[in-house]
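The records we work with from here on pair a chain with its fold. Taken together, the tokens spell out the fold as the letters spell out the chain. To see the layout at work, look at the sequence and tokens printed below.
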Amino acid sequence: MSSFMSVFRYRGEGIIEDTPENIIPFMYLPEHRMHWDKALKSYTLLERIDEDTAICHTVTHSYGMGLISSRDFVDLVRVKRYEGGIVTTNCKYCCRVIILKSITIFFSSTVT
């Protein structure tokens, strides 16, 4: 449970037998992400800050015959490279902006 708000954080792990340089673009570039992430209505790269940092806009589909409305997210995607070929897409301070109709809520979390 987050100390910031009463929400749960979920974490997934898996093993993919390929190099990080091949996997990371597949996960975050719009031309690839829209093919495998069926929860998305749209996914747009808004700005590439540098080789390892980008700002993306994500729109999800609505669910439950419209009971759960479509959501907009603006994500800061940061790729970190470590010695030994380890690559992560988490950063110590990540921010996500959730836009619900005309209400904007800012979430900030510390990922370790």
